Each structure stands twice: as structure tokens, then as C-alpha cells.
Amino acid sequence: MDHELTTLPNGLRIISEAMPSVRSIAVGAWVDTGSRDEAAPEAGCSHFLEHLLFKGTEELSAQAIAEAFDAVGARSNAFTSKEYTCFWAQLRDEDLPMGLGLLAEMIQRPAFRADEIESEHHVVLEEINMNEDDPSDVAHDQFAQALWGDHVLALPVLGTRDSITAMTRDIISGYWKRRYHPATVVIAASGNLEHRSLVDLVGERFGRWSGGTAGHEFVTPTVTSTVKVVSRDTEQAHLVIGSEALDRADPRRFAFGILNHVLGGGMSSRLFREIREERGLAYAVYSFRMPYADSGAFGVYVGTTPHQTSQVLELVREQFSKVAAEGITLDELERAKGYTKGSLALSMEDTNSRMVRLGRHELTGVEHLSLDETVARIEAVTLQAVHDVAVEVLGGPFVIGAVGPFDAADLGRHVA
């Protein structure tokens, strides 16, 4: 990755990477705000704005925005996380001025029309209903709440039914005014572009935008062994077990990635082989990482028949203990390195993947590395480095988030 970075006088950053062999461009407006930045009455406001900014500006209706993107065959959407919000479009290189113009209007001059807010209340409530009807999503939410308790990272990105129902135009507009400023926005782009021309285009559309800054409150959470269960009479138990892990700036993140892959990152992983292939106890089993500014998480998800819950959790804890005590093998290390390098190279062939990588890293302060530099970091990971991370991450305390026909007391012994 050979990126270029420019900061406008108003503080807005522009980062890009040229891919001359393609005829498309992916562009994203990354806003440094997410669910962790919301006060209690604003719960879900970051995500609500993700929807609402597509509903129209002072000059454009929601239909006009949709028709403009559709007329050139562009893909456009947005997503919200605990730490940031991104509005993006993928389009032909010659349509970049139009796409940037729409994004600029949406972000700087949202209309916040009363009828659109009322309509979007219903849409977001339906999204919450959909999330709650998916027991695996609920289990992950319970895991976050068990892990982080009262910390802001435990807050659901969607908000709650109560907070969304009570969300007024004043709350939404106030949050936008407090969090959306040029200094909190990164424009990231990848594709058939020239950086200087991109800077000129962004300057024309965002250069007169003014505003202050918006920071974050970073607090190290206190984690204790906890079980949180949503009791439902389901055919399958949905289990997430894990612990606090490395934050996003930790230099050991490459060793952590290797550990994650060996434990549950693919079909050759220990947990996949042990739980699914050899014992047939589950269809879905995988591990995952969630790195944030002031904390992180490592977890394992398994969906299994309720009466097999204890057996599955015991097997997961056995693998945790074994890897923490013995580390991984040389074959596992080399296989995980090969997978990580290969999947990284494949992702870099897509303009949208490169744009997301650029924007997310610039916004969150993660070091920008070229493909060769990243491969070198992966190659440098040793068995001892993976073992050291395993000792820290897999040593507990552990928490469980679950959905199934049981209660927290039934699972308590598995986090002891």
C-alpha cells in the first residue's frame, strides 16, 4: 500500500491509494464517533444518524440521493461500530465528483425532517427486532455485556427500544452538532485516482465546513467472571465464551492473530476439528477478536444442542488451558502465517477493502503498513510470541453470553 495523506486547513484528512489497473473508485467518509460516545438519552444515535443521513439534505430528498447513485450503477451504504461511522460509495472513476458531492451534502447539511425521523424510528425498531430474533446476535450482545459491564463498550450499537422510541429531533441534531466536525472526519479513497485531484475535489466540497473537535473518554474496564443468559426454549443453544484481550494498538496483535486462527479461525483450527469434525457437536464454531482503544476481547462462538452445552464449554476451556500451557506447534504457526498472508493479499485486490483498511487505520491511529511490511510482521511472529499472548489472553477471567433453555446458574462453573 503506497498511500498519500493530506490534511485540509479545517482539519479534515484525506487519505488515498492509487490502483491504476481498475476503472472504479471506493470512497468513504469516516466519522470518529460510535456508540461508545453516546450519553444515555443518545443511545443508538450514531446508528440512527447512519440511516437518517441517507434520508435527505437541505437540497436533496432521500429519493434524489438514491436515484443519483442508481443512475450510475454505484453501490452506496453505511455502517456503524462502537467507535466509528462510515458512509461509502463504490463507483466508476469518472463518477467520483458526483459521489463525493452527495456524501458532502449528506454529512454537512442533513435535513432532519420530522416525517423522516418518525419513519426511521420504525425502521430501526424493526432492525432491533430482527437482531433479537437472531439468537446468535443476542448471544454476542450478552457476551459484550458480561465482559464489559457498565463500560461504554458494553452498549449495543443499535440502542434499545426505549432509547430509539424516545429519540427526538433535538437529541439527534444535538449529537450531530457535537460529534460531526471536519476534524473528526477522514475521507478515504482507493482505485483509479490521483491524490492531488482527489484533494481538490474534497476541498471544493468540504473545505468551507467549520467546527471544533470531539474527543473520547477512555477508561480501562474491570472484568470479572460473569455469565449472562437470555433464557429461551430454543432447539439450539448459542454460546459465546471468552475474555478480555489486547487493545488495537498492542504491538503483539500479529501474534494474537496467529493465535486466533489456530484456535478457531478456520476449518483446520483446533476447535473446528475437535468440536465439529471429530465429535459432531456443532455446525458453527469459530473464534474472534474485537480490538478497541482501551480494551479488547477474544471469544469463541458455538451453536449446539442444549444438552451438549456443558460438554462443548468444557472442550473449549480444555483447549484454552492446553494452548496457554503448551503453546502451538510449528506446523500450526506456519499454516496460520500462510493463511494470514494469503487472505490479506486477496483482500487487497478489491478497492472497497483497501478503502476500508485506509480509513479505519487513519481514523483509529493504527500504523499504516504496506503489504510487504505487514507480511514481514507476520513472518516475524515466533512460537514464543504466540505462547506469551496465549498465557495473557487465555488465563481468564472468563465470561459467557448465551441464549438457550437454561439460566446463568447452569453455566457458572464454566467460567470459574
Describe this structure in words.
The protein is of the alpha+beta class. It folds into two domains: 3-136 and 144-206, Cytochrome Bc1 Complex, Chain A, domain 1; 226-415, 2-Layer Sandwich (Cytochrome Bc1 Complex, Chain A, domain 1), CATH 3.30.830.10. It is 45% helix and 19% strand. The protein is built from 16 helices and eleven strands. The protein has helices at 45-52, 62-70, 96-108, 114-133, 135-148, 161-165, 169-179, 195-206, 253-264, 270-278, 309-326, 330-347, 351-364, 371-379, 383-393, 408-411; strands at residues 3-7, 13-18, 24-31, 75-80, 85-92, 185-191, 226-231, 237-244, 285-291, 296-304, 398-404. The strands form two sheets. The protein has a six-stranded mixed beta sheet with strand order 1-2-6-3-5-4, sandwiched between helices. Strands 7-11-8-10-9 form a five-stranded mixed beta sheet. A hairpin with a 4-residue loop joins β9 and β10. α9 (253-264) packs across α12 and α10 runs antiparallel to α11 (309-326). The longest helix is centred in the N-terminal third of the chain and has 20 residues, at 114-133. It is globular. The chain starts with a strand and ends in a 5-residue tail after the last helix. The mean pLDDT is 96.
